[in-house]
UniProtKB/TrEMBL annotation:
Lineage, opening ranks: Eukaryota, Metazoa, Chordata, Craniata, Vertebrata
Organism, as annotated: Terrapene triunguis (Three-toed box turtle)
Positions with biased composition (Acidic residues): 1-10
Biased composition (Low complexity): 55-65
The protein's name in its UniProt record: Transmembrane channel-like protein
GO cellular component terms, A-Z: plasma membrane
Entry GO MF terms: mechanosensitive monoatomic ion channel activity; voltage-gated calcium channel activity
Amino acid sequence: MNDSDGESEAGEASGKKKRDKKASSKDQKEAENKEKQTKKKGKEQDKKQKKNPAESSSSSSASNSSDEESLSEEELTRLKEQVEEKKKLISTMRNKPWRMVKKLALLREAQAFVEKFEGALGKGKGKKFYAYKMMMAKKWVKFKRDFDNFKTQCIPWEMKIKEVESHFGSSVASYFIFLRWMYGVNLVLFGLIFGLVIIPEILMGIPYGSIPRKTVPRAEQATAMDFSVLWDFEGYIKYSAVFYGYYNNQRTIGWLKYRLPMAYFMVGVSVFGYSLMVVIRSMARNANENTGDGDDNNFTFSWKMFTSWDYLIGNPETADNKFASITTSFKESIVDEQESNKDENIHLRRFLRVLANVLIICCLCGSGYLIYFVVKRSQTFSKMQNIGWYERNEVEIVMSLLGMFCPPLFETIAALEEYHPRIGLKWQLGRIFALFLGNLYTFLLALMDDVNEKLTEEVVIKNITHWTLLSYYNSSAMNDSAVTPPPIDPADMPRGPCWETTVGIEFVRLTVSDILVTYVTILVGDFIRACFVRFVNYCWCWDLEAGFPSYAEFDISGNVLGLIFNQGMIWMGSFYAPGLVGINVLRLLTSMYFQCWAVMSSNVPHERVFKASKSNNFYMGLLLLILFLSLLPVAYTIMSLPPSFDCGPFSGKKRMYDVIQETIRQDFPLFIAKIFSYVANPGLIIPAVLLMVLAIYYLNAVAEAYQHANTELKKKMQMQRDEEKNKRNNKATTSSAIQDLDDLLVPSAKSVSQPKPTEENKSDSTRRNSPAGKEGSMARNSNLTSSGRGEMLAPPPCVTITRPPRPSLRTSHHRQSKPGAYQQGPYPGMGRGQPH
């Protein structure tokens, strides 16, 4: 039987081979015939193309379109999904934790894929529209990117600031960004004053030399153009549109009937209003940006590890300093944690800090007294003749020298306090702020004494002027001449001291002297020092770069505070000298170029590079305080002091604000004047102020409540995290205990034997080997795995049977068990009372 079966099988195999050979030969013949036919068709098509090229092009396009349309919907959807995935990969490529080489390779591959297959997502005519739409979308994205680059290029000094930022970090660049912001604010203020006050007076006002306030006195005309006189802002500059006294008190000027006094007053108020609005808006924007900085109290080391690096640094030296700064900050945090538990001599520390504060208070009082003494002395010098250059500029020189030498003295005294560097920096900034503010207000108080003296002098000169005019016209009348006497020459008219112009001249002198001292300090203290260290280091006894004097670092705090106080002087002096804002615009413009050059050529990066985002609002807060303190003297002079009788747009009025009442009374209807009179009543103003104070108090209380709720939520989140950690720890301990119990139960499980496979089990195994059985087993396994890990590991239910299995089958079953599988429980067939 076996031999016959083998022969039949061999015969069948040989028959199959023959049939396969015949079939293959037929297929080969058919393929050859098809190739011949295609060749013939190709030759015919070539001939047709030579004869009719237009028909050939149309047929090729039709074939291409038919090939493209041959893509099925499934392939199109799959291709669309792939294109979307590639686009998503391109957009999220920066966030991938891959090497740069891999990122670039995948980016090029994804871009090529998108460009190749993006146009195949349409059908027929829709494909062309889709391709056109995608082309326009790409061009629109490119246009927006180019327009953003164009806007960046249009930002003043953007590339110059980026260069400084790459070499010195964002902390030094923050000063130049602040300087650019101040330049923009002053440019707007200059546009207001120049366009609404200076230009109308020059174009439509009374020309120069027609009235006394616009004419140089006869006694000063000989030296009015001398450089020494012009340097002191006397002569022709004093009687120009730069200062308050040049403007006439005519209610309307020119054919436009332009109300110059009203415009002068409103522009002076709008200078403070616009500045206040811009500063508060910048503070609010910085506060919104700083909300994402994170909490410094929680996860201190994590924040320092992942957020301390300044990615805008492009200089290796600055990068090394930043690396050292981060290392130092870690060491400081560790030392702070260690020293918080140490005992120290608190009494000695307190004594040294009190001593340092007493010394600094003495320095502040001494500087204030010195400025007051110098200002009073300059008043006596102003009454003398033939005084020298130092006597004329003594006030400005003393204030500039105090601002130069007092901050290093404060820093030396602060070494006694042994504060943390961050706390010490805040104390240093506060003391320099107090120095500048005390000097400025001492200067103002001494200047107010001078103003009061000039007001008493004005009363006498006003009477002299009236008597001079009266006697001149009376003498002509007594001569009985029919011809009217010629008017007195404006240069010969007696005139008052014009205290507003005097105050404006003092502010202009102070601003110009501050500019010169700043530039000389940069030139000598930075550039010449850097040249000396650079070229003399080769032949010196010690290393000048590493030791004394070394290269200078850029003083961020000192420069920012100097800029803030200079702006305070501009705000105070712009009401009395409208041209002062123009001088400040030129100062800021030259400072940007000069200080950028000095930083790049003469300074070195700081040993500790700080991020600038922490200090923006601090500087803005100081600027807001200076703005408020600058408003007080101007408001006092407007509301309390009488204007000069012969100069300025408010001459002839009791107070400067009377121009508003005059305009309302003459140019507005009667009921509006009544409304303004009721609004200006103190009975309404005081309750309104109280209501504002209550609203501020309420909003502050709400903000504190929100802050308290925020801290409580943070505490709850921390407690929840701790509870989750405890739960995870408890699970780990319980799982280890269960594992120990399993290890103890394993030997008893090994001693348990398996049952003999019955006929039902055999049938089950045959079913599993069949394809249907495999699918059923896979379904059952999927059900088991989907039910959970605990159910998959659970032992099968015990079924009690009467006949125990044989021992040989038990042992053979254990030998066939797969290694690494889960240990199973006792198999069915073992009752409690059954012997092993």
